[in-house]
Amino acid sequence: MKLGSVCYIPPPSHGHPALFLENLNQFRHKYPVLLCSDHTWKVGSIPISSCPSPECVRMSKVPAAIPNYAFLSSARLAQAEGLDYFFVLQDDCRVGEDDWDDRIFTEFFEKNKNGLNGGTIMSWYPEWTPRFRAMWGKHLSIQRRSGHPGVIVMGEPENKYPGRARRSYANGALSIIRTELIQPIFSRDDLYRRGSAWDDEIGLYLTAQYGDEIYDVLVPMASVMSDCYDHGSTLDQRKQWLLEHKAAAIHQVGERWIPNLK
């Protein structure tokens, strides 16, 4: 089985990508780390291939057009490399230990060797069927016992956003995806024209395919902490989990910070 991590690296004017690259080069990785960028980087020793700028779709009226295009650029790296599963990094993520990717993939396959999507789970309308509600409750219990709020980010009640489709998925950054999902979901290569973010599209697809049995293929994980506008944790909490090795990788680090663990 071929495993690896992928990431689109934006130019220096967007966030703190140089620090992210420095962080990736701080720690050993077990599997390939495939990076692409429309900027010429000279940070660290991990090769970075060239790709078109996501800014090419800025005129799109779809709010998520640019991040969607960036994701497709990195997903194509996984397809070209022939990866069976890939782990999604973004430049606002940080890793915190040697072989961080091995820890993450090991947790995924130990929990579900047939999983299709894993990470920090987001669910819209988790009460929609008895079985789904039971599975959601099980994972909330795991969350409370672990002291790691990142097992579940949020579960919004249906009446909060009426009319939106039910779905569950791993929040995009720091998620594991089975590569064969890319073709049926994004086969038209037009994600940047759609209204939903790419991780949301995966959730819509999996929920349509599996219904309330989606937890048979969805893997909630504790070795990563992704988030969506600090719904599930604060930045200080996420940094502390990384420093204490409660998580191997964290997301939404919007400041100039990398762990100093060595």
Tell me, briefly, the overall form. globular
Strand content: 15-25%
H and E order: EHEEHEEHEEHEEEHHEEHE
Output the radius of gyration. Answer: 17 Å
- Give the rounded overall mean pLDDT: 86
Spatial gap, N to C terminus = 31 Å
Helical/strand content category: alpha/beta
CATH architectural group: Alpha-Beta Complex
**Major sheet characteristics:** 7 strands, mixed
Which percent range fits the helix content? Answer: 25-40%
The CATH class turns out to be Alpha Beta
How many individual domains?
1
Largest sheet, spatial ordering of strands: 3-2-1-4-10-6-11
Summarize the structure.
By secondary structure, this protein is an alpha/beta fold. The chain has helices at residues 17-26, 65-81, 100-111, 130-146, 182-186, 198-210, 235-243, and strands at 3-9, 33-37, 48-50, 85-88, 94-95, 117-119, 121-124, 152-156, 167-170, 176-178, 218-220, 224-225, 249-250.
